[in-house]
Design brief:
heterodimer; A: mainly alpha; 2 strands; globular; B: alpha/beta; Rossmann fold; 2 domains; 11 helices; ATP-binding (chain B); ATP hydrolysis activity (chain B)
Chain lengths: 275, 308
């Protein structure tokens, strides 16, 4: 090989910054960049779903139930619902694709075999996948608020916090979903996940109705539902009335859930992709 | 420069590798050293442990025993460094079908950390290499089987790796398409890239490899240039005989008693190293079909397996 060729190859070689085994932001961003390119192909369908779904919920429940309910926990029903549906949207944008897409990419498309043959490790892969879904949740989570404004929700400066809350909750639930996708062994098991886990998660979180009418044990169970804490943060940001201490507790629960799920998702995914 | 440029460091070094899956021992004491700059064909029947070995090289499988070094990096501990310097062509086509050729390559230019200002050029170069220069905007779904495979191969070359692993690169392709890929793989060698290619196509190994490592039952049973291996185990010529069906066993006994090796192919019996057959023995045999010895003769002799 000539020196020039050798030099050309040196120039094109990727810069290897990190000590091996360390967590690299570049690897994470590589995974995110991959999703971004895929999104360029699928954004129409994703956006359609993200807009139409909350609109239908607000229309049907907002007007249908709103006519019967009037006000709820001190809010007009459409306001209560509009903020609750932000959290539902986040769940649909994060946990649902995390379970389904991650499973398919791992089991059927051999996508992860390809990514992990590049200089990307399992934890970076998991973080990148979750980060992308969190970003998507942060953006699409705001759509219900915009729709609700069309139905009369009053805009306020606190609403600017909603994308960040949605991002945080989206990150948590994406990691949760990735962990589950690495636990289940067949597509059939997803039935258990969606009926047994997903549905109660978004119903028992103060999204469509306040928890106060539910039996005591269900209310207690809701306290460990991270989505409940996301809902409280969102309502607090939009309407105010949330103390700093309360807000910290809610953020703390979400962060704790993220840390736990990050370890679990990375651990379980590694068990699946490394033999 | 640092130690990574000394070509004395082998591209691959595997010592005493053992990998078990439950009660099955897939790799059983594998030793393999590959110097930089050659194409090494890892040849073996299905189940010989080739794919498991390939997976261990990307740390997607972890050996129970033994030592693996890739370009001097210890695997799995330093696997990420090794992976930054090598390209992997997987056995399963995992291209994104709903994306274009260019998008598929761009995606991996990120994963391989090709510096931003070199991405465009790297993508253009690899598309040319795959003879897909004008297909950048074509969806992978609309490519022919051969084009897809070429794209899969060059996707592993975006970051100009020093070592390329190919797991059965031409499996399931038409002969014509396979020939095209062979020239692409040869071109890599000419650039000084080390290639480890697992295959169970003998002709492929013979045509492309500087050296062949024959794998059977989880270890390398023989290693050398195709020509040396053929000379060592099958001599210069092979004679194919067609004994009566009931006479096959007797024929083999007779030839074996003179110290010659035979192999059966359907109803014919091939005598290896036939140029050394003594006239006295030859007088007792029919007129054979004579041909040059080849790697297939070696493969069958050493692994006891027939080939496709």
């Amino acid at each position: 090989m000539s020196t020039r060729q050798q030099q050309a190859r040196e120039d094109a070689r990727p810069e290897v910054h990190a000590r091996p085994g360390r967590f690299e932001a570049d690897a994470v961003m590589g995974v995110v960049a991959r999703e971004w390119i895929l999104y360029g192909q699928s954004w129409r369908a994703t956006t359609f779903a993200a807009v139409v779904e909350p609109t239908l919920y607000l229309l049907c429940f907002g007007f249908g139930m709103g006519a019967l309910v009037g006000t709820l926990a001190g809010y007009s029903y459409i306001d209560f619902l509009g903020t609750g549906i932000v959290a539902v949207s986040v769940l649909f944008q994060s946990m649902m694709p995390a379970v389904i897409n991650t499973f398919i990419k791992r089991r059927f498309l051999h996508t992860y075999e390809g990514i992990l043959a590049a200089p990307v490790d399992v934890r970076e892969l998991v973080t990148g996948e979750a980060l992308w879904l969190a970003m998507r949740s942060g953006v699409y989570g705001c759509v219900p608020l915009l729709v609700a404004m069309g139905f009369g929700l009053r805009p306020g400066p606190g609403m600017l916090l909603v994308p960040f809350i949605a991002f945080l909750a989206g990150f948590a639930f994406a990691l949760f979903g990735i962990w589950i996708s690495a636990v289940i062994t067949s597509v059939r098991s997803m039935d258990y996940v969606f009926s047994g886990l997903f549905t109660p998660l978004f119903l028992v979180a103060g999204t469509f109705f306040p928890l106060t009418g539910l039996p005591g044990w269900v209310q207690n169970a809701a306290m460990v539902n991270p989505l409940y804490h996301a809902v409280e943060l969102i309502r607090g940001a939009v309407f105010g009335g949330l103390g700093a201490g309360q807000a910290l507790v809610h953020v703390g629960v979400l962060l704790g859930f993220i840390v736990l799920m990050w370890f679990l998702a990375g651990f379980q995914m590694r068990r699946r992709v490394v033999s | 420069m640092s130690s990574r440029d000394t070509s004395a460091v082998p591209a691959l070094l595997l010592r005493g590798i053992v990998k078990r899956f439950g009660s099955l021992t897939a790799v059983d004491g594998l030793d393999l050293e590959v110097p930089q700059g050659i194409v090494l064909g890892l040849l073996g029947p299905n189940g010989a442990g080739k794919s498991t070995t390939m997976k261990m090289l990307t740390a997607q499988s972890v050996a129970d025993e033994g030592e693996i070094r890739i370009l001097g990096h210890e695997v799995p501990a330093e696997s990420k460094w090794a992976r930054a310097r090598m390209g992997v062509v997987p056995q399963h086509d995992n291209l994104d079908e709903e994306l274009t050729v260019e998008q598929n390559l761009r995606m991996f230019s990120y994963l391989y950390r090709v510096p931003r200002r070199q991405r465009k050029e790297a993508i253009a170069r690899t598309m040319r290499l795959a003879q897909l220069g004008d297909r950048g905007a074509t969806l992978v779904d609309d490519l022919s089987g051969g084009m897809r495979r070429r794209l899969l191969i060059v996707r592993a070359l975006l970051h100009r790796p020093e070592l390329v692993l190919m797991d059965e690169p031409t499996v399931g392709l038409d002969p014509q398409v396979r020939q095209d890929l062979w020239s692409a793989i040869s071109a890599l060698r000419d650039e000084g890239v080390t290639v480890l290619m697992s295959t169970h196509y003998i002709e492929e190994a013979e045509r492309l490899s500087d050296e062949v490592a024959l794998m059977a039952r989880g270890r390398v049973v023989e290693r050398g240039t195709p020509a040396d291996l053929v000379a060592k185990y099958a001599g210069a010529t092979v004679e194919e005989y067609l004994p009566d069906e009931e006479g096959v066993d007797a024929f083999e006994r007779l030839v074996h008693s003179h110290g010659f090796t035979t192999r059966r192919t359907g109803t014919t019996v091939s005598v290896l190293r036939a140029e050394e057959l003594p006239q006295s023995l030859r007088d007792r045999l029919d007129v054979p079909l004579r041909r040059a010895s080849n790697l297939e003769d070696v493969f069958v002799t050493l692994t006891g397996e027939s080939v496709e």
